[in-house]
């Protein structure tokens, strides 16, 4: 079933991505609905163009009189107008709910949310799904993996964005626990990343003692070592101080598990392409992850959900959670680059969502969640340090 939400403005870049656009002279609401199954919304424009997505409304609402194009199949259906989308919400039951059973025994549960700092329906829906998942699974904390405030970070520790983009959006009771935060490239613009650790000095939930840091958690009798990097400088290979610190963290780790978090990917087939997988990350970070048997490298930057791993004898699984408020498609050049490195793109999801994690003493389960709370993909692995 589709519910008409109104008439909305469009321009370049498109309010709803043209990826997978359907153009049909006999367009109708049911035809667009059938085409967009799996998305949260669809928009019909100029009587013949159907676009699917999980957010809309970046350019604001238009007067209903600006969406007067009739659908060819059914003249009673609204099919938008010139540069105007008739927006419909798809009402459907989740295919696979957040109530899916997890791993048995003592667990450490958390989520990773990246590139979440853009106000809009995409962010709002992810926040709702994240809250529900965190409540059902009794999550212990949230990892915020950068690009926390678009487009240019925050201007001070008193910036109203902390209230508008974070506190007023992630209101679910289950999200009132600690957020472990790192900065992304947008947070770093104009040398503004420094204000986020300063905000953390007065907000207990916003844990960011510095731009890079580490902490330990326990699960049963095991320790989990989380190492959080500030990759905006590391990716260009110009931050020797942080690289030396990172090496010491891994060399002296007391963790039975090690998980590393950064903003930028080491591998990605996303829209940012090969620029996501910089030489600095590949040459300086990747070898250390493999040497010290890091189980997961978690990041964002590309606005998608991804799982990548080495085609043979892999140690590290690469998890991208970068669609907390933006979404983008894959990139053919990046796909070829990743294949040339002997890396397999196991899963790519181009829409909004987040990633949830459950760690036991012996295993970790990684679940990719969309805005409906559906598990669209998951995998389970053992601890490479236990081998």
Topology readout:
Elements: E1 2-9, E2 22-23, H1 29-35, E3 41-45, E4 49-53, E5 84-90, E6 108-113, H2 121-136, E7 141-144, H3 161-167, E8 179-181, H4 185-188, H5 195-200, E9 206-207, E10 213-219, E11 222-228, H6 231-234, H7 240-251, E12 257-261, H8 279-291, E13 296-299, E14 305-310, E15 317-321, H9 332-340, E16 343-349, E17 353-359, E18 363-370, E19 375-382
Parallel strand pairs: 6-7, 7-8, 8-9, 11-12, 12-13, 13-15
Antiparallel strand pairs: 1-5, 2-4, 3-4, 3-5, 6-17, 10-11, 14-15, 14-16, 17-18, 18-19
Describe this structure in words.
With 387 residues, this protein is an alpha/beta fold. It contains 9 helices and 19 strands. Helix 8 links the parallel strand 12 (257-261) and strand 13. The radius of gyration is 21 Å and the shape is globular.
Characteristic terms for this protein:
387 residues; alpha/beta; 7-stranded mixed sheet; 9 helices; 19 strands
Strand adjacency order, main sheet = 9-8-7-6-17-18-19
Distance between the termini: 50 Å
Unreliable residue runs = none
How many helix segments?
9
Overall helicity: 10-25%
Major sheet, described briefly?
7 strands, mixed
Q: Could you give the order of the helices and strands?
A: EEHEEEEHEHEHHEEEHHEHEEEHEEEE
Instruction: Count the E strands.
Output: 19
What is the percentage of strand-forming residues? 25-35%
Report the average pLDDT across residues.
92
Structural class: alpha/beta
In one word, what is the shape? globular
**Gyration radius, in Å:** 21 Å
């Amino acid at each position: 079933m589709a519910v008409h939400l109104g008439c909305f403005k469009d321009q370049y870049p498109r309010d709803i991505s043209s990826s997978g656009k359907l153009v049909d002279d006999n367009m109708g609401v049911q035809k667009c609905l059938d085409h967009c199954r799996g998305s949260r919304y669809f928009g019909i424009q100029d009587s013949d163009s159907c676009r699917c997505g999980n957010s809309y409304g970046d350019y604001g609402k238009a007067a209903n009189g600006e969406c007067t194009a009739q659908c060819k199949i059914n003249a009673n259906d609204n099919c938008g107008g010139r540069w105007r989308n008739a927006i419909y919400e798809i009402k459907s039951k989740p295919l696979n709910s957040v109530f899916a059973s997890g791993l048995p025994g003592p667990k450490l549960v958390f989520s990773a949310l990246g590139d979440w700092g853009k106000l809009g329906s995409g962010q709002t829906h992810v926040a709702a799904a994240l809250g529900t998942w965190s409540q059902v699974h009794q999550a212990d904390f949230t990892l915020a993996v950068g690009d926390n405030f678009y487009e240019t970070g925050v201007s001070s520790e008193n910036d109203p964005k902390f209230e508008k983009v974070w506190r007023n959006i992630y209101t679910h009771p289950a999200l009132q626990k600690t957020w472990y935060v790192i900065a992304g490239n947008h947070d770093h613009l104009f040398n503004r990343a420094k204000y986020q650790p300063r905000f953390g000095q007065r907000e207990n939930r916003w844990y960011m003692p510095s731009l890079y840091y580490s902490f330990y958690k326990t699960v049963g009798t095991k320790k989990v070592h989380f190492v959080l990097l500030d990759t905006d400088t590391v990716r260009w290979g110009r931050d020797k101080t942080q690289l030396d610190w990172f090496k010491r963290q891994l060399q002296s780790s007391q963790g039975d598990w090690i998980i590393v978090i950064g903003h930028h990917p080491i591998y990605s087939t996303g829209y940012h392409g090969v620029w996501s997988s910089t030489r600095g990350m590949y040459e300086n970070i990747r070898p250390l992850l493999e040497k010290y048997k890091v189980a997961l490298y978690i990041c964002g930057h590309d606005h998608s959900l991804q799982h990548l791993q080495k085609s043979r004898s892999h140690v590290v699984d690469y998890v991208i959670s970068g669609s907390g408020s933006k979404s983008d498609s894959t990139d053919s050049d990046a796909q070829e680059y990743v294949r040339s490195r002997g890396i397999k793109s196991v899963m790519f999801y181009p829409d909004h969502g987040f990633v949830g994690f459950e760690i036991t003493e012996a295993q970790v389960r990684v679940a990719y969640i969309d805005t409906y709370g559906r598990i669209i993909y998951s995998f389970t692995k053992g601890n490479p340090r236990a081998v």
